[in-house]
Every structure is written in C-alpha cells, then in structure tokens.
C-alpha cells in the first residue's frame, strides 16, 4: 500500500514541479506512463549534458596525482549543489504550501516526504553529476580495471550525494523551527538563499584566482582529500575509516530527519507565526495603490533569488572574473566607441532580461487576484500597462547600477558609461516587451512556487540555450561593429548603426503595441 502511495505521490510531484512542460507533453498526445517518462528523460538529458561537458574537460587533467585540482573542483560543485538544494527544498516544502492538504488524507507521512525528496533529488542531480564524473575518471586513471574504477566512483558518489542531501535538508528544516525564521520567514528565506549564492560566487572567484597562481598546483582541501583517497586506494585504512564515518553520518542524519524534523514540518511547526498588520492609507489614488500592491508581489524571496540567479548573477560572476582574474580594462576606448558601448548595453540587457527575469512573470504574480482586478470598473489594459512600466523601471534601475559599476571598474570614459546605461535601458524595454507578452501567452494563475513560473515554455535548459545563443550573437555584433569603426570612417559607421537600431526598435515596439491592441484579455 505504501509503495503504491509513494509511486503515485512521486508522479504527482513530478507533474507539479513543471506544470508547463506537463501541459506541453499532453498537447503532444502523451499520457500515463509515457508522460512521466518524458518528463524524467528531460532531467536525465540535462544531467547527461552536464556530465559530458565537464567530463570532457576533466579527461585532460591527471586527477590521481593532482589532489588539489580534484578537491577544489569537488568543493566548487559541492557549494553549487548546496545552493541548488536550498532553493529547491524551500520551493517544494515551504513555498508550495501543500503539506497541510495531505493531513486529512489517509496517506503515510513517510510516503509524502519520500515523494517530495525524490523529486527534489531528481531536480538537483544534474548539477552534481560532474562530481560523479570526477570520481569515475579518477578511478579509471589509477590504471585499475575500468569496471572497478567505475563501480568505486559510482558507489562513492551515491554516498556523497545522500550525505550532502541529508545535511542540507537537516540544516534547512532545523533552521525552519527557530523563532526568528517563523517570525521573519520571507526575510530569512531570502537571506538563506542569498548566502548560498554569495558562497557560490566566492567559490568561483577563489577557483579563478587559484588557477592563475604561479604555483604548480592547487592546495588540497581537507575532507575532500579523503574522498580522493577512497577513489585512488579504496582498500586503505584511511579510505575504510572515511567510508565508515560517511555511512554512520548518513544513518544518524536519516534517523534524525525521519523521527524528529519531518513530523514537526508536517504538523506545521514551521509556519509563520507573526501576524502582518497592514496600514490603512487614506487619500491615495488607485494607481498608487496598484503600484504599492505590485511592489509587494515582488517581495517573494524565492522569486527574487531565483530570478537573480538566472539573470544578474551570471553577469556579475563573469564581470568579476574579467576584472580580478584577467585585469580587464577599457580605458583605451575613445569617444568614437560610444556607439559600440550603446549596442553592447542593448545586448547585455537582452541577455540579462531573459525568461527568468521578473518581467517574464509579472502578470502571473497576481494569481487569482487578476480576475478580481479585471472585474473592477477600471481599464484592464491600463492596469497591465502600469505593471509593465513598473517592472521596466525596477529592472532599469538595477541594470543602470550594474552598468555604472562595470564602467567604473573597466575605467570607461564618462561618455561611454552614459551610452552603456542608455543601451541597457533600451535593451531592457525591448526584451521586457517580449517577456511580458510571453507571460500573458503562458499565463498561469494557479502556481504554488516560483519554479513553476520560470519553467514555463521549456524550463532552465531553454533559458540556458537562449542565454548562450544571445551571448554568441551579441559578441559577434559588438565585435563586428568595433572592427568596422577601425576599417571605415567612424561617422558613417555610427550613423548607420544608429539607423539600424532605430528601425529595429520601431518595428519591435510597433509589433508588441499592435499585439496588445488586438489581444483577447479574457481570463
């Protein structure tokens, strides 16, 4: 009975994590077992892609002799896994707010949590597969029989992955029982996910700095060095003791999670206890009330952290790597490159304001309130226009701050900084038009966690491919523009480039204005 319950709950949570993909697969005629297999295959494909990319890079490194390289890469992906685990566990267990719905049902608590943990594990597994590749490749590089190296590496990865997963789960659930979390749940969630993102940024930064050091090898990290010993010599005393410690730790954490923490979470002991008192403000117009309401919608910590991790975070990490690692400087760019910086700003904004941006979910954030607002005696298109202007302003302010920071560290001329800021504003407007319209086309008012919104229309894999493709095209356009400035008269090239930008901008604005003029706003 429990096994049947578990399988059904796993299927429900798989559908629940990515409803848009579920809907798309059903439109393609897939139902039942074929539907579940299709959704699982997507995670497996993403994992295979991660493993292939990083595995190919690791084949050129002697992981047996270079313990520092081994431990530093494992440490990096451990931090990435912790960051992904914090966000995913928070989404599935706390932001979904569906645990209370299981209480009146004749379901085993063990089955409910096992199903959720299974889906969480499947979601974060692709980011951990490079560690598995390291264990296997290092085991094969020892010269032993390939089957032994593969088996030892795989078993060690399973133990490592379970340990990491349980450790992160216990840390999150234990913190959720504290008074400060229950009284300030949104703030604590934002800080918790924010700290893991900062830790991941620091890890990437340290790795980049270490790789540029004049020393011949990286320093080994204690703890991960014992994992290296298991892979290289699994029968040594150190390896056997390390495996025993991991097994005992996994057992203790499993018992602690099942007997103490999960019952508290299921009973709602982590529920927010502070009553939020809203101030009644008189004398405010409807527009100001709507602005205040929509700014409140953006206060979801999981929404903000996930959006930042998909949009701003990669740009910041890449910029830090350029400035710190490579000593990047654009001080030699004269005023004739102002147009290049303008176009570069447009491209950066298009890369940043993608399907994971706030503009891509702004309408869906209303949930069921959207129907109520539509029933009010107001211009509904005017309300949607207000939401669009608001989110464009918010995103523009963030992008301008990033552009100014980039200009400062890159030692750009003030004119180039100004045109860069103008470029990111224009690119933000154009990209927001697309993503805002996309949100209306894929409108979802029944979502329960932010992951469902960002996964619409293709999920993280599509976002990754779009970002990569836009970066390649953007680099080609900016590079071609700069090269033509050096080959032809700058005045002619700059005027021609601005004419192209004006024509393209006019077309995009006209296209989306025409779309919304004819759009059917029936919910």
From TrEMBL:
Domain of life: Bacteria
Tagged with keyword Transmembrane: yes
Keyword Transmembrane helix among UniProt keywords: yes
Transmembrane segments: 43-64, 110-140, 146-175, 187-207, 237-257, 303-325, 337-363, 384-406, 412-431, 462-485, 491-510
Native organism: Lentilactobacillus hilgardii (strain ATCC 8290 / DSM 20176 / CCUG 30140 / JCM 1155 / KCTC 3500 / NBRC 15886 / NCIMB 8040 / NRRL B-1843 / 9)
Name of this protein: Uncharacterized protein
Keywords for the protein's UniProt record, in alphabetical order: Membrane, Transmembrane, Transmembrane helix
């Amino acid at each position: 009975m429990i096994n049947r319950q578990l399988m059904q709950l796993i299927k429900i949570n798989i559908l629940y994590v990515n409803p848009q993909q579920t809907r798309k697969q059903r439109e393609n005629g897939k139902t039942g077992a074929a539907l579940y297999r299709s959704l699982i295959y997507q995670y497996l494909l993403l994992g295979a892609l991660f493993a292939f990319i990083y595995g190919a890079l690791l084949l050129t490194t002697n992981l047996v002799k270079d313990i520092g390289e081994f431990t530093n890469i494992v440490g990096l992906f451990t931090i990435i896994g912790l960051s992904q685990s914090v966000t995913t566990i928070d989404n599935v267990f706390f932001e979904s707010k569906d645990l209370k719905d299981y209480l009146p049902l004749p379901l085993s608590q063990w089955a409910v949590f096992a199903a959720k943990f299974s889906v969480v594990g499947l979601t974060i597994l692709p980011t951990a597969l490079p560690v598995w590749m390291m264990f296997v490749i290092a085991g094969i590089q020892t010269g032993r029989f390939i089957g032994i190296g593969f088996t030892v590496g795989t078993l060690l990865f399973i133990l490592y992955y379970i340990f990491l997963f349980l450790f992160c789960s216990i840390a999150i659930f234990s913190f959720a029982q504290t008074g400060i979390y229950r009284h300030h749940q949104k703030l604590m969630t934002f800080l918790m996910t924010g700290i893991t993102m900062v830790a991941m940024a620091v890890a990437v930064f340290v790795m980049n700095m270490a790789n540029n050091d004049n020393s011949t090898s990286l320093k080994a990290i204690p703890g991960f060095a014992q994992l290296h010993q298991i892979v290289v010599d699994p029968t040594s005393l150190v390896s056997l003791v390390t495996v025993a410690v991991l097994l005992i730790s996994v057992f203790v954490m499993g018992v602690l999670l099942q007997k103490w923490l999960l019952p508290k979470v299921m009973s709602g002991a982590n529920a927010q206890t502070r009553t939020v008192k809203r101030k009644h403000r008189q004398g405010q117009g409807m527009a100001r009330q709507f602005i205040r309401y929509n700014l409140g919608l953006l206060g979801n910590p999981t929404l903000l952290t996930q959006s930042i991790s998909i949009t701003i975070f990669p740009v910041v990490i890449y910029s830090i790597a350029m400035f710190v690692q490579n000593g990047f400087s654009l001080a030699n760019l004269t005023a004739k490159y102002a147009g290049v910086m303008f176009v570069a700003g447009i491209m950066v904004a298009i890369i940043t304001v993608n399907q994971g941006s706030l503009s891509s979910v702004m309408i869906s954030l209303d949930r069921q309130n959207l129907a109520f607002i539509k029933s009010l005696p107001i211009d509904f298109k005017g309300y949607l226009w207000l939401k669009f202007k608001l989110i464009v302003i918010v995103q523009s302010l963030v992008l301008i701050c990033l552009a100014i920071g980039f200009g400062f560290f890159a030692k750009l001329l003030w004119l180039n900084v100004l045109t860069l800021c103008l470029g990111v504003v224009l690119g933000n407007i154009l990209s927001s038009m697309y993503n805002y319209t996309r949100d209306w086309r894929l409108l979802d008012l029944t979502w329960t966690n932010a992951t469902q919104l960002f996964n619409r229309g293709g999920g993280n894999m599509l976002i990754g491919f779009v970002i990569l493709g836009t970066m390649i095209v953007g680099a080609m356009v900016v590079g071609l523009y700069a090269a033509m400035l050096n080959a032809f008269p700058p005045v002619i090239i700059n005027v021609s480039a601005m004419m192209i930008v004006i024509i393209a901008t006019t077309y995009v604005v006209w296209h989306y204005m025409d779309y919304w003029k004819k759009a059917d706003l029936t919910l």
